[in-house]
Amino acid sequence: MSANHPNQQHVAFRQGSDLSLRAHGLQNTPPVQAISSLTSQPSTRQKRTLNDVTTTVAGVIWSLSDTIPSLRNIKTNLKDNVNIWKTNGTSIDPKKIPSAIVVQAVGSTLQLKSNNRIQVVQKYEARLASGCSEARRAQENGSWKQKKEELLIPGLPSKKFLESDDNPRNQSENIVQDVFLHSSKPGYFYVLWEGWAVDNLYELSDIEVQQSASEAVRLAQIRDAFLDAFNAANGTGELDEFVAREKYLDRNVRMDVNHPFWTFKDLTYFHTQLHADLEKGPVFYFSLETDMQNPPNFTYTNVNVVREDAYIRCLGRLANQNFSELSGSANTMRSSTACSSPQHCKCNQRALLAYGATAAGGPVRLLQYNAEGLLQLDNYNFDDARILVECSNTCQCSPENCHRRVVQRGKSVAIAVVNGNIGYGGYAAEPIKKGQYIVEYVGEMYLLKERRSKENVAQSKKMKAQPHANIDFRLTQTQKDEMPDVHALYINRPAKSKRGSSYEAGFSVIDERIVICASKVGNVGRFFNHSCNPNATFVEVHSRCFESDPLIPKIAIFALRDIAVGEAITLRYYSDQQMKDKRGMKCG
Ligand SMILES: [Zn+2]
Ligand SMILES: [Zn+2]
C-alpha cells in the first residue's frame, strides 16, 4: 500500500504567485543565495542519497519543483494502516470516499448494514492518518511522554522518540513533519521530524529540505503567507513577536521540548494529514499569545459520526428512497445526464419530490451550482429555507468532474485556526471565491430528544427490542411504520434555529430533529465565529455518490463573498428573533 499524501487538487494552485513568500515579502528573512552545487552532507536521518539531484534551486527558497517527491510518498507496511482511499496511489476512488461513521448504541442488538463508505463501529476513536508511520512507531517505543493533562489531545501521539532513545532507525524512512526558516543562518531551515521530540531540531539546507520534504515546504509556505497577511490585516504591529515565533521559532520554543507551541504544531500536522487522506486542504493552528496553554481539545473527524438513532431515522425518511421509488417510475428522466441543463436534471426533480424545493423559491429554495462549481447565492436571505441537492450515480455524470458534486468530493480550502485576544477563530489561508465550498460542518449527529413524542419513543424501543434485527439501507415497510417519516410535517415550516447551544447546528429542511454537534467530535468548521454580517453560510446538502447508499444529510459551509487570505470566516448562527431572545442584542 502506498501513502500518497500531497493534496494534488491544490498543488498547482498553491504554487502560483499568490502564495509565494516573494509576493508577500520576506521582511525578516536574510536574502537567500542561489545554490548551484551540493556541498552539505545529507543528514544522518536521511536515507535518500542526494547525489542524483539535478535540479538547481533558484534564488527563492520557496520555489519548488513538482518533480521532487515528498518523503511521505514512501511505502509503509504498518498493520493499522487501513485508511487508504486511493486507487493506484494517485486519485481517490469515489467508491471509497467515506460518508459517515455510525456508532451503535450501547447494548444494541441491531445489525446495521455497512459498506466502503459507511462504517459501523461500537465506539468512535481518534485515529492517525494513513501515512503517519513514524508517529505510530514512536507512540509504541518513544521515551518522551506528554505529561500535561491539558496538552493530551485525542488523536495526537502522547509519546515521541528522544535522541537518547536506543531505537532502530532503519525500520522506516524518516518523515519531515514541519519546516521553519532559520532566523540567523541564510538558506537553512529548522526541521521537525514526525514522531520525534524537539530535543533535536535539525538544521538542513534549503536544497536538502526541498529535495526530501517538498510537501512540508509547500505547507510552510502557505502557513507563512497566512501569518504575514493576518499580521498585515491587524496592522498594529503588536503581533510581530508572535508571528516571528511561528515563522522562525524563538529560543524559548526551540529549547523546550514540553512547550505547548509543539502541541499546536502537532494539531496542525496530524489534522492536516487526516485531511490529506481525502485530498482536503491543510489546517493550521496558532496561538498568538505570550502564555499559550490551552490548545483546542476535541476529537477530529472528516465525516459525521452518526449515532444509531439518528442513522435509523435517516434510513426511514422519504428522502432516503432512491430516485425511481421517489418518482414512481424508473423512466421519468430517461437517458438524461442533465448536469449541463438544470431544468432536466434528476437532482432538481428529486429536490421537488423530497422537499418541495424549487429554484424559484416557495417554501424551500433549491440552490444551484454554476458551471465552475460555485454556489449561486445572489439573492441569499438568512431566513430562507434552502437546500442543495448534488448528483448521484443516477445522473450518469462523472464523480470526478461534474460541477454539481462539490461537497461529496470533499476538497476543502486551507484554513487557519488562531487563538488570539478574542479567543479562537477560523480564517482563510487561501483566497476563497464567492460561492466556493469552504468545508463541511461535521460532528456527532444525533436526534434531539426533547422533540420526541411518547409515541416515537415507544416505537423506537419496540424496534430495539427485536434481537439481531437486520437494518438495511432501505427499511422494510414494517420498520418504516415503526419509524414514521415526519418530514411532511415540516416541509412548509420556515427556517428556524441554525444553532442551539454553541456547537450545535440543526437542519430545518431535511430533518428538524437531527442535529450535528461539534463540541467533542468535529472538524475545523467548529472554529468559525458568529457575525451579523457574515461572509459564509451554512447550507443543508442532500448528497450521496450512490443512490443505493443511505442518505445522511450534510451541512456545508459556502462563501457568500470573496474572502482574502488572513480574513476571518464568519457565519450567522442566530436569527434576528433569536438574537433578541437569547442575547438581548440585534444585528444591524
Ligand atoms: Zn444530477
Ligand atoms: Zn452531475
From TrEMBL:
Residues 310-410 form the Pre-SET domain. Its main location: nucleus. It is found in: Chromosome. InterPro entries: H3K9_Histone-Lys_N-MTase, Pre-SET_dom, SET_dom, SET_dom_sf. The keyword Metal-binding applies. It comes from the Eukaryota. One of its GO terms (molecular function) is zinc ion binding. Gene3D superfamilies: SET domain. GO terms for cellular component: chromosome; nucleus. Transmembrane segments: none annotated. PANTHER family: HISTONE-LYSINE N-METHYLTRANSFERASE SET-23, HISTONE-LYSINE N-METHYLTRANSFERASE SUV39H. This is SET domain-containing protein. It comes from Caenorhabditis nigoni. The gene is Cnig_chr_X.g23713.
